[in-house]
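Sample entry (302 residues):
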Amino acid sequence: MSIPHKVCITGYGLLSGLPMVDYDVEQQIIKQSDRRLMGKTMQSAVYTAGVALEHAQLKNKFDLLQDTQIIAALRGGERDEAADQAIINACKEAGEYEETLNKGLMEQLRPTLFLSQLPNLLAANIALLYGLTGSSVTLMGGDIGGAQAIQLAFSRIQSGQASRILVGGVSNNESNEITAVYGFQLGSASGFLILESEQAAKARQAPILAQLSQCKIGSRIDQDLPKITNMITMSSKFETSLCDNTKVIRNASSEVGTILEAAMPVGIILALQSLDREKLKELWVHCAGETHGHAFACVEVA
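Predicted structure, serialized as tokens:
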């Protein structure tokens, strides 16, 4: 039986806030024609992916990017509320519905707005803009979808199936529709990480920021998990009774809100940033699904 590879974090990109903070998208998405084809969700995800590549000293190093894989989690589509309103107004003014509606949809909707296409288009945009030519996987499914992206990347590197993966999630909830569905304003965030095997990172002399030592998903904290002493939770519903002797040093949901697919990637970045500040050797990250399921990842000092 082969020895599992150590999984290292060598770079990350982060945007978060209630709403998402302002950022200079032109730093990563240079061409106006590219930006025009992307909605806010796509722009924020592509931007943070670029920041992660830059942080990990991989930007424009195509010999390394050619086998770098992409794993991303986000919802299936997004609405353009301005386009929606323009089409509604046009239908009212025209006095008829079907022809004006069809014309408005054909002329005003970006490709990223079609249901179930957004995740695949994100992976394609990242690959095309930054030159990643490895395989890609996209997932949907809220907080657990983001955790599954991390778990898949972790298991691939640990088993030797991949040496380097750009992995993350994005959730843009700044729309009236989302607020109406949930009954309150969710948060918006995008977080991407570069995960590498220790061997691959050392071979290119990349600084190792931290180690990702475990990643598990289940209905609750199961018996396989060791004693968790310090934790960041991304869920406002976290029950301390689920985990004995655990100190929740930070409930990040009060800072970034409910960020769905971005929760676990963002949580890992926050944990990485907190290790030195809190003088800790390891820090667990927790997130929970909307109706069921819990996910945990452990970030350790490299």
